[in-house]
Write a structure and sequence with these properties.
Elements: H1 3-20, E1 29-34, H2 53-61, H3 75-82, E2 88-93, E3 98-102, H4 106-113, E4 118-123, E5 139-141, H5 158-162, H6 166-171, E6 180-185, H7 198-202, E7 206-211, H8 225-234, E8 236-237, E9 241-242, E10 249-254, H9 264-279, E11 283-286, H10 311-321, E12 325-329, E13 351-356, E14 380-383, E15 385-390, E16 397-401, H11 403-420, H12 426-435, H13 454-463, E17 478-479, E18 487-490, E19 495-503, E20 508-516, E21 521-524, E22 534-542, E23 545-553
Parallel strand pairs: 6-10, 6-11, 7-10, 11-12, 12-13, 13-14
Antiparallel strand pairs: 1-3, 1-4, 2-3, 5-16, 8-9, 15-16, 17-18, 18-21, 19-20, 19-22, 22-23
Length: 555
């Protein structure tokens, strides 16, 4: 067993032991943990009984075997729980060996707790009808005028893709074809009729829908948040919006109930992640996060956000270990007393995405890291401030704020990157994204590793650009980053060097020649103090050689 697997197992055991002693109160949904899978009728030698052919192929391509977490829960245990009275089984979790049930009879809950194969029972919800509405990110305002240099194909959505050099992946023909993306959200109202998804529907690109809140397949009648999120990846509205992965296929999973906030929604998410795994999803996008609940006894603390304590975060870790790439919004608590990321954004082996504006300035609402155990979070950032998304109810676009949108913008490009590098595994794809980011060598609590460059990530994966302890992927280290009125870098070569500084639109704002000595620091101050705050690219050229690095100027 790997160290990662041992960590996950320890986390699961600790959670189960803690819930064994919890007292029963009024809520009507419960997590029921089982002790074992000793008598399960399933066998690891026959994975086709519990995984799709696509899921098996994804595991095989990455050299990932099968373990006890893959085995479904013992159906005999489930039947015995159901036989105790009025009990509805909502979800079965193979990763955590338990079930989520609904019952309003306290005597039934006591009887479940007394079963010899039950290791713990925990309240996860409240009686139906007791709720407080939860606000999710929604489109906020009208679209700004088109900026110079935007391409007709993308319309006003060009900047959110071009910031990540995603349009260069599209230019290579990669729009996510052959990849399956699972979207876990609050509902997808209008996706079945919107013109922006007409091409997706026409090619049967929505391969499955499942409402894990209501227990049916109707995800188009619940809420519009998922529609806006999906539009960042799959939307195609001529002259207005092109998503980052319009060629990918999608699984639409409703896990969030916007009318209340209880732990049962994390159970819904885990059920969705396990379903996505069994279907063979490659990428998961989650524009949700959990911190506090309508019942304060269920609240998480910042100390819980260590990637090993909360079940939803452990599940995100497992999803990664099974060969998927989970992409999760960092959260919108940057300006609130909470301040930090939410769960499962604290998970260990995922891409947690913060938000920036159109010149790569940190969005004030974007949640901060690090994780409670000191890991870099968010991992990377994408445009989530004035992101162009599909407006609810009509076939037009709006500018929206929230890490709910920076996450899918990035998730779609992850699929495109994987399409171009099909022999790479999930871990390698995620690490290339991090390595390509603007602050990879100087991560911080607001940007994480910074804004990634997917063209560079593709180069890292395809031609093996080196990453050593002294030099960035582009050949030199630029510091301080962010900067104010001076920049330094270690010269990548000796002799005359051509220096060019470009702003976020690609306009040259500084150009000069310098003499460099390899591995010797060079100081640049001329004209920097007069430049407006925003993102810049410093290019160093010598003959046919070219090196570049990105940075951010502070006010």
């Amino acid at each position: 067993m790997s160290m990662g697997a041992r960590i996950i197992c320890v986390g699961i055991v600790a959670f189960l032991l803690a819930t064994k002693a919890e007292a029963q109160t009024a809520p009507d949904t419960y997590w029921v943990a089982f002790t074992d899978k000793t008598n399960t009728p399933y066998d690891l030698s026959q994975p086709e009984e519990f995984l799709s052919a696509r899921a098996i192929a994804r595991r095989a391509a990455q050299g990932i075997g099968y373990d006890e977490l893959d085995l479904p829960v013992d159906p005999a245990y489930v039947e015995q729980v159901q036989s105790l009275g009025e009990v509805l089984v909502l979800h079965r979790s193979k990763w955590f060996n338990g079930i989520t049930v609904r019952t309003t009879d306290p005597a039934v809950v006591d009887a479940i707790r007394d079963l010899p194969f039950v290791n713990g029972v925990r309240s996860t919800g409240a009686s139906l009808g007791f709720s407080s509405a939860r606000k999710l990110d929604e489109p906020m305002g009208d679209v700004m005028d088109l900026r110079d240099g935007e391409e007709e194909l993308y319309g006003p959505s060009f900047r959110q893709i071009a910031m990540l050099n995603g349009h260069l992946l599209h230019a290579e023909g990669a729009q996510g074809q052959g990849l399956l993306i699972g979207v876990l959200d609050s509902g997808f109202e209008g996706v079945d009729v919107s013109l922006a998804f007409a091409e997706l529907r026409a090619r049967n690109g929505i391969v499955l829908t499942r409402d894990l809140v209501d227990g049916d397949d109707q995800v188009y009648d619940a809420h519009t948040h998922g529609r806006s999120v999906l539009s960042c990846m799959a939307g195609d509205l001529e002259g207005q919006l092109l998503g980052t992965a319009p060629g990918a296929d999608y699984v639409l999973l409703r896990t969030e109930d916007v009318d209340s906030e209880y732990l049962v929604e994390e159970d819904n998410w885990i059920a969705g992640a396990e379903l996505a795994d069994s279907l063979g999803c490659d990428v998961l996008n989650t524009s949700l996060g959990y911190t506090t609940f309508d019942d304060s006894t269920m609240d998480h603390s910042y100390a819980d956000l260590d990637g090993r304590t909360l079940r939803i975060s452990i599940a995100a870790n497992i999803a990664s270990q099974k060969g998927m790439i989970p992409v999760n919004s960092a959260g919108n608590s940057g300006s609130s007393p909470w301040h930090f990321i939410s769960a499962p954004a604290d998970a260990i082996d995922i891409l947690t995405v913060g938000a920036v504006g159109d010149v790569e300035q940190h969005a004030p609402f974007s949640s901060f890291g690090p994780s409670a155990d000191g890991r870099v979070k968010p991992d990377v950032c994408a445009m989530g401030w004035n992101t162009i998304v599909l407006r609810p109810g009509v076939d037009s676009v709006a500018a929206a704020n929230g890490t709910s949108f920076s996450s899918p913008v990035l998730a779609g490009l992850v699929a495109c990157l994987w399409q171009l590098n099909p022999t790479r595994n999930a871990e390698q794809i995620m690490e290339a994204v991090r390595q390509s980011a603007s602050f990879y060598w100087t991560p911080n609590e607001s940007y994480g590793y910074g804004v990634p460059d997917f063209a560079l990530a593709n180069d890292i994966l395809q031609v093996g650009i080196g990453m050593d302890e002294n030099h960035a992927t582009s050949g030199f280290v630029l510091y301080p980053s962010p900067f104010i009125d001076e920049l330094r870098f270690v010269a990548p070569a000796s002799g005359r060097l051509d220096l060019i500084l470009l702003d976020a639109t690609g306009r040259i704002v500084l150009q000069q020649q310098i003499q460099g000595t390899i591995d010797t620091p060079v100081l640049v101050t001329e004209g920097l103090s007069a430049l407006p705050a925003g993102a810049y690219v410093l290019r160093i050229g010598q003959g046919t050689e070219l090196w570049q690095q990105r940075s951010l100027k502070l006010p």
